[in-house]
Structure formats: structure tokens, C-alpha cells
Write a structure and sequence with these properties.
The complex is a heterodimer of chains A (166) and B (546). With 166 residues, chain A is an alpha+beta fold. Chain A contains eight helices and four strands, in the order αααααβααβββα. In chain A, strands 2-1-3-4 form a four-stranded mixed β-sheet, with helices on one face. In chain A, helix 2 packs antiparallel against helix 3 and helix 7 runs parallel beside helix 8. Chain A is elongated, with a radius of gyration of 19 Å. With 546 residues, chain B is an alpha/beta fold. Chain B has four domains: 91 residues, 3-Layer(aba) Sandwich (Glutaredoxin); 204 residues, NADH-ubiquinone oxidoreductase 51kDa subunit (Rossmann fold); 84 residues, Roll (Ubiquitin-like (UB roll)); 89 residues, NADH-ubiquinone oxidoreductase 51kDa subunit, iron-sulphur binding domain (de novo design (two linked rop proteins), Up-down Bundle), CATH 1.20.1440.230. Helix content of chain B is 43%, strand content 13%. In chain B, the strands form three sheets. Chain B has a five-stranded mixed β-sheet with strand order 10-9-13-11-12. A four-stranded mixed β-sheet of chain B has the order 2-1-3-4, covered by helices on one side. A four-stranded parallel β-sheet of chain B has the order 7-6-5-8, sandwiched between helices. In chain B, helix 12 links the parallel strand 6 and strand 7. Chain B is globular. The C terminus of chain B is likely disordered. The chains are: A alpha+beta (166), B alpha/beta (546). At the A-B interface, helix 3, helix 5, helix 6, helix 7 and strand 4 of A face helix 2, strand 9, strand 13 and helix 18 of B.
């Protein structure tokens, strides 16, 4: 019984598990802290793999199925590592009617990947967003956390070229 | 923290600010930040230091000034607003403080966009530094909380809110006073307050802007709500997609704890209150209150049938008050100035002001706060400045995926909860997207149905399967392969979803289809019978954005 209740040890020596452990402690190792903890894992590691999900589930004493259920229910969580760069195209209403579909088409054609995928050389991940809240600047694109407004097809192509060539 | 201490902080801050004879305010809300306003602020800071005028010229980062399309915006103590400022302009801007304005950058403020607004929620936006509690306190911040705690009973606070006629700003428009009263009457030692900051509607950014420009105002509203209903713990459920809002909220909570406005025995009373953040993870359905509660509890965000309502059984089974960011942001001025004062603004059934995010095909896009009851025509053509490039107005979309498209003949309708509902749309959280003749209404309906289909949580069948089938038919119409039979089926599905879905997402998912079918039936007919798209959107290869 003791071994079941004791907190499991992190999967490996990676220092980043310390951050995850801190969140688990702050949530009192309660099931209610599941989403918060997954946020921390994703922030630290970039994505959620099976090992991380198992560790979090065990630490918070929730079934692995529930951890997996939550990780796949919410769009923000990703189970795959992202590429070196990410390009997020906003598909909010304002962006949509101001030409976001055209931007997306151009990028898909240039990179040869669909939204949610990463180029084979792991350079660029293409994502779409529901709405960035930058509707005043539609259409908006996020290049590696940096929001750019009033983007044209050429601008997005140019930007991606810098990433793929370098 | 006692009332005297609060006054002292306000006094010190005012005298500190009084030392400066010149002021430059730079917008550091998300809209302007993505136009590099941080580099403008840095350049101004450096320039002030270089000139040695640091003692009497203050450069301050402030919240949203509204006209996001013209950012970065800078306002000066000379009373001039500048638009599209770049870092290189900083010497010229500082010169202008004691001389002539820099005419090439001036943004005229005597236009309807600024003149027609009435600011209650956004009264501090663009004036105070969102990252400093002292600045908020100097602008009368937290005085409403002190007033409520020291001079008013819980009943009186609720009565004041009821008198104001404030209705929920999240979209449904439930009377706030009534909701508070229900939670306060609910039996239970532990109650919770939740702030819904999961602004999922595409095309809406009011809550984000309020959180980024004036986070303490939301905290103050929540504190007053907590006092009124007898809650001691609160959560703010905020979208993970808003990192800046999260950062400023965290900072605001820390500051409020430091000065003793959050924590145990606030102002020496028995009232204790703690606020914690919960990050959403990108699920639109979590805007629905029971789904939001499930998500705060760390579960998948699926709604459950009501009743019991959260006011009776909410978070962890305890009575819970859930309001939207903008609702809480309205509370402090109501307590400060009285419910009657607030009720003077607006229409008979919709009181006060509403913040709208104006976007799409209008000249001026950005954030506006207007009295309820203003007409759509004023919104689009006066405040919004009309449609660019001489195109023709077609529709304005309100309420996001749960709302509808309002055509030209609705333009003279007043904007309030009842009128919008009668016209087949909803107030929603306040996104207002203007469309011109280049938008195809079938395509727009398909876009929203795609949204609802993807965001359906899958718990109830009418929504999960119905949105898929409706999307399939709308795609067929857009591809010009649909028949009259399909159209009939689409109408039947609208009815089915509306009446049999579990939560608001499914019940309102048909709204964009119903409203476009009603006002733009000829466009549907053109797609089905004549196999053409009048706006030239459907079936066209994608080209350059218009």
C-alpha cells in the first residue's frame, strides 16, 4: 500500500521534471491539477509523450485513460514534437473574411504539409488557430510566438523561405 | 490594508505622477505590441535618458486605446494621439511635447470613432499602467471594494447591482443581480466565484483587452462579488492562447496579495478571498458554464444537463458564481457611483454600455465601448467609418458561431439583447464582424459550421452528428452539387439541433445557417439552381487575399 501511495520517481534525470514536480506539489497531487500539470509538461518539453502522461497520471492518481483523454480533448496539447519553427495562421472570422484561407493555401503548397504537420526535415510546423484576438490586424500570422498583422501571401512566403533555406 | 492606507497609496502615487510635467503613453496591449510598440517605448525611454529629461518627462506603457488597426498608438500630455509610430519617430515626438504636433503621425480624435464612445469598462484603458497596482489605486481603484466592505452589507451590494440592471456580458444576458442573489441564498459553507475569461468566439477580443489593459478592475469586481455571495475562493479561467493577459493577471494577483487586498481578513474585516488562475487549453465548449467547471476541475470540458445550475451545484459540487470578464469589470463603477447612475445609460431592458470588437471589412477596426441601444448603422458607418474601397455593405455578424448575420434592413435596429435576438442573432460576447459584397454567405455559414463541428465535444448526438451532417450539406452547396432536397434537410437539421442538443453550443450552432437562409436565401438558390456563387468565392481557386 505504501508503495502505491508514494509519489513515483521521475522517468529520468532530466532537470525539467523538477518544474513538473513543483506544479504537482502546488496542486496538492490532486486529480484536479491534471490540466495545470499537463500545461507545465508541455511548456517544459514542448509536447506530451506517453512517458510524461504515465508519470503525470501516476503522480496525480488518475487513470492513464483520463490523462490521455484530457490531453487529446484540448487542442492546445500536442502529442507530437513541433518543428524548429512554428507558423500559426489565424482562422478567426475576421481573418477568414480578409483572406486567411488564401494564406493557408499558399503555405500548404510551399511546405507540402497540412495544418498540424511538420515538414520532414523538422524545420517548420504549420498550425492554425481558432482566433488570436488580433482581429484588428487581420489576417494575422504568428511566426515563432511573434504576431504579425495584415499579412499578405507574399509576406508569409518570404518569411517561410528564410526558415527553410537557412 | 485599511481605507486610510489605500488613500495614502493613492496620494503618494498622485504626487509622484504630479512631478512629471510631460507624459508620453505608449500602448502595450497585444494589438500594438504585435506592431512593435515595445521598441517604440524602449526608444522613447532611451531618448528621454539621453536628453536628461527623465525627471519631468514620463514614458508609460498603457493599455489599449481602441484603434488597433492604426497601431502602435502613442498619446502625449499635449493631448495629441499619434498613430503608426515607429522607433525612429521618438525624438520628434518628444520635441512635440513643448511645440507643434508631428502632423504626419497625428491621429484625429474628433471623429465619431472616439466621440461616439462612452467608456465605463474601458475608463482606465490607455491611461493607466496595467502592470502597477499603484496606478490603478490612484485612479480610484479598489475604492469600490473598500466601500462595499466597510459601508455596505452583502444584501446592499446585491441590491445595488440589481438596481443597475446589469446583465451578463458573456452573451446570454442573464440579470447579474439575480444570479448573485441566487448564489448568496444557496446553502453551503464553501462557495466559489469563477471568472470566465475563455473568450473562444472567433472575432472577439474584448475580454483579452480588458485583462491586458486593466486587470485589477476584474479582480476588484470579483472581490466584490465574493463578498456579496459569501465566497472565499475564486478562479479565473483564462485561455492559454492569451499569454500576455495571463502574465498581467498573475502580476496583478501578486500585487494585490502584497498590499493585502487579497488574502485573509481584507481591510480588517472577516472577509477572506483568494484568487487562482486556471489555464484553458483551447476548447470552445469550455465557454459553457458546466463545461468550464469540469475543466477547472481538471477534466475534459464536457457540459452536463442543467438543472442543477452552478449557482446550486457548481465547482466541486458547491454553489458557484460564474460571470464573464466584462461583467466583473462593470461592478466597481456601479458600486462607486450607484446602480441608478449605471441604469441611466442604455435602453429599457439593456442597461449600461457594451464593449464591441469591431473587425472585418470596415475602415476602423478595434475596440469600442458604446451605450446599449446604438444602431448598427452608427456602429458600422460612423464609428467603423464605413466600408473600405467603396464596396457595398452586405452583413454584420454578431455573436460568433452562435450568432447570426444581420443584413442591410437590420441596420437601423438598436443594438440590445432583445432586438438582436428578434433578428435571429445574439448579443454574444461582443464580436462584430462586418462583411461586404466580397463575402459569400454560404461560405460564411459553412465556415461557422466547420467551427462548431470541430468544437463539438461529442457528448450528445444531435450536436456531434448534426453539425457534421449540416457541414456536409453546406459543403455540397458551396461546391454547387446540392439539390433542393438537401436544402430541405438542412432546414430540418437546424430545427433538430436547436431543440435537442444538450448545451448552448449545439442549440445555437444552426443560428448562422438560419439567419443566412432567412436574409440571403437568393444566394443559396443561386448555388443550387444556377450553380454559381454571386460573390465569386465558392469554387474559385484561391488567389491573393483581397
Amino acid at each position: 500500500m505504501v508503495s502505491y501511495l508514494a509519489k513515483p520517481a521521475p522517468p529520468n534525470q532530466d532537470k525539467r521534471w523538477k518544474l513538473v514536480d513543483a506544479t504537482i506539489r502546488r496542486q496538492g497531487a490532486q486529480p484536479r491539477g491534471l490540466i495545470e500539470t499537463l500545461h507545465t509538461v508541455q511548456e517544459a518539453f514542448g509536447f506530451l509523450d506517453e512517458q510524461a502522461l504515465r508519470y503525470v497520471a501516476m503522480s496525480l492518481r488518475v487513470p492513464l485513460s483520463r490523462a490521455f483523454g484530457v490531453a487529446t480533448f484540448y487542442h492546445f496539447f500536442t502529442l507530437k514534437p513541433a518543428g524548429e519553427h512554428t507558423c500559426v495562421i489565424c482562422m478567426g472570422t475576421a481573418c477568414y473574411i480578409k483572406g486567411a484561407p488564401q494564406l493557408l493555401d499558399a503555405v500548404r503548397k510551399d511546405l507540402g504539409i497540412a495544418p498540424g504537420e511538420t515538414t520532414p526535415d523538422k524545420k517548420v510546423s504549420l498550425l492554425t488557430a481558432r482566433c488570436l484576438g488580433s482581429c484588428g490586424l487581420a489576417p494575422a500570422v504568428v511566426y515563432d510566438q511573434e504576431v504579425a498583422g495584415k499579412v499578405s501571401t507574399n509576406a508569409v512566403r518570404e518569411h517561410l523561405k528564410k526558415w527553410t533555406v537557412a | 490594508m485599511t481605507p486610510e492606507e489605500l488613500d495614502q497609496i493613492a496620494e503618494e502615487e498622485r504626487s509622484e505622477q504630479g512631478k512629471y510635467t510631460q507624459r508620453v503613453n505608449v500602448c502595450i496591449a497585444a494589438g500594438c505590441l504585435s506592431c512593435q510598440s515595445q521598441s517604440v517605448k524602449d526608444a522613447l525611454d532611451q531618448e528621454v535618458v539621453r536628453r536628461g529629461t527623465k525627471d519631468h518627462c514620463q514614458v508609460k506603457g498603457v493599455g489599449c486605446m481602441g484603434l488597433c488597426s492604426e497601431g502602435p498608438l502613442v498619446s502625449t500630455s499635449a493631448g495629441v494621439l499619434y498613430k503608426k509610430v515607429e522607433a525612429e519617430d521618438s525624438p520628434a515626438l518628444l520635441d512635440s511635447l513643448a511645440g507643434e504636433p508631428v502632423s504626419r503621425l497625428v491621429c484625429p480624435t474628433d471623429v465619431p470613432f472616439f466621440q461616439r464612445q462612452k467608456k465605463i469598462v474601458l475608463e482606465n484603458s490607455g491611461l493607466i499602467d496595467p502592470e502597477r497596482i499603484e496606478d490603478y489605486i490612484a485612479a480610484n481603484g479598489y475604492s469600490a471594494l473598500i466601500k462595499a466592505l466597510t459601508e455596505m452589507s452583502q444584501r446592499e451590494v446585491i441590491d445595488e447591482v440589481t438596481r443597475s440592471g446589469l446583465r451578463g456580458r458573456g452573451g446570454a444576458g442573464y440579470p447579474t443581480g439575480l444570479k448573485w442573489s441566487t448564489v448568496s441564498k444557496a446553502v453551503g459553507a464553501q462557495k466559489y466565484v469563477i471568472c470566465n475569461a475563455d473568450e473562444g468566439d472567433p472575432g472577439a477580443f474584448m475580454d483579452r483587452s480588458v485583462l491586458e489593459s486593466d486587470p485589477h478592475r476584474v479582480l476588484e469586481g470579483m472581490l466584490i462579488a465574493g463578498y456579496a455571495v459569501g465566497a472565499s475562493e475564486a478562479y479565473i479561467y483564462v485561455r492559454a492562447e492569451y499569454p500576455l493577459a495571463i502574465k498581467r493577471l498573475r502580476n496583478a494577483i501578486r500585487q494585490a496579495e502584497r498590499v493585502g487586498l487579497l488574502g485573509s481578513n481584507i481591510c480588517g474585516t472577516r472577509f477572506s478571498f483568494r484568487v487562482d488562475l486556471r489555464l484553458g487549453a483551447g476548447a470552445f465548449v469550455c465557454g459553457e458554464e458546466t463545461a468550464l467547471i469540469a475543466s477547472v476541475e481538471g477534466k475534459r470540458g464536457t457540459p452536463r444537463p442543467r438543472p442543477p445550475y452552478p449557482a446550486m451545484e457548481g465547482l466541486f459540487g458547491k454553489p458557484t458564481l460564474i460571470n464573464n470578464v466584462e461583467t466583473y469589470a462593470n461592478i466597481a463603477p456601479i458600486i462607486r457611483n450607484g446602480g441608478e447612475w449605471y441604469a441611466q445609460v442604455g435602453t429599457e431592458k439593456s442597461k449600461g454600455t457594451k464593449v464591441f470588437a469591431l473587425a472585418g471589412r470596415v475602415e476602423n477596426t478595434g475596440l469600442v465601448e458604446v451605450p446599449m441601444g446604438i444602431s448598427l448603422r452608427e456602429m458600422v458607418f460612423e464609428i467603423g467609418g464605413g466600408i473600405p474601397e467603396g464596396r457595398k455593405f452586405k452583413a454584420v455578424q454578431t455573436g460568433g458561431p452562435s450568432g447570426g448575420c444581420l443584413p442591410t434592413d437590420c441596420l437601423d435596429m438598436p443594438v440590445d439583447y432583445e432586438s438582436l435576438a428578434r433578428a435571429g442573432s445574439i448579443m454574444g460576447s461582443g464580436g462584430m464582424i462586418v462583411m461586404d459584397e466580397s463575402s459569400c454567405m454560404v461560405d460564411v455559414a459553412k465556415y461557422f459550421m466547420d467551427f462548431c463541428m470541430t468544437e463539438s465535444c461529442g457528448k450528445c448526438i444531435p450536436c456531434r452528428v448534426g453539425t457534421y451532417q449540416m457541414h456536409r450539406i453546406l459543403t455540397a452547396i458551396a461546391n454547387m452539387t446540392a439539390t433542393e432536397q438537401d436544402l430541405k434537410m438542412l432546414e430540418e437539421l437546424c430545427d433538430l439541433l436547436k431543440h435537442t442538443s444538450l448545451c448552448g453550443l449545439g442549440q445555437s450552432a444552426p443560428n448562422p445557417v438560419v439567419s443566412t437562409l432567412r436574409s440571403f436565401a437568393e444566394e443559396y438558390r443561386a448555388h443550387i439552381q444556377e450553380h454559381k456563387c454571386p460573390a465569386g468565392v465558392c469554387g474559385q481557386p484561391a488567389g491573393e487575399p483581397l
